[in-house]
Write a structure and sequence with these properties.
With 158 residues, this protein is of the alpha+beta class. The chain is 24% helix and 36% strand. Strand 5 and strand 6 form a beta hairpin. The termini are far apart.
Amino acid sequence: MKGVNKKGVSPVIATILLVALVIVIALIIFLFMRGIGEEAITKFGKENIKLACENVEFKADYLDGELAISNMGDVPIFDMKMKIMKDGSYETKSLKTDFPEQWPSSGLTQGGVASIIVPGEAGVEKIAITPVLVGKSKQGAKKSYTCEQGLYEYEITI
């Protein structure tokens, strides 16, 4: 058989491609399993902290540069994330770290009230605040958890 020209992948290249494929598959499995094994944070010793967000009740008002927040429920609020929206963009601040002298050090307990003086900024359209709770991991360490913004944030139109 004259003129038969066999072409193929060399064994070295084939081995390299197989090893690369195995590494990619192992990485995908690792990342998938890591997401499943997310560390559970509990509130009150038994309840998953994500479920505790459903029981958070608070009221917020904004008037003349002052943001007043009161905890109406029985779940202590450790911190609040404040999203200041203006001109199509936003800036997020933590009330506990950015306003430590105005936010209670232990957070807002049941019936607690905080008054935050928000520096005046031109063009602010809305302020959205989202509660941050603190719970314990299985190892007993305190961990903070920000409730889902879409579900538990409170928007104030200015």
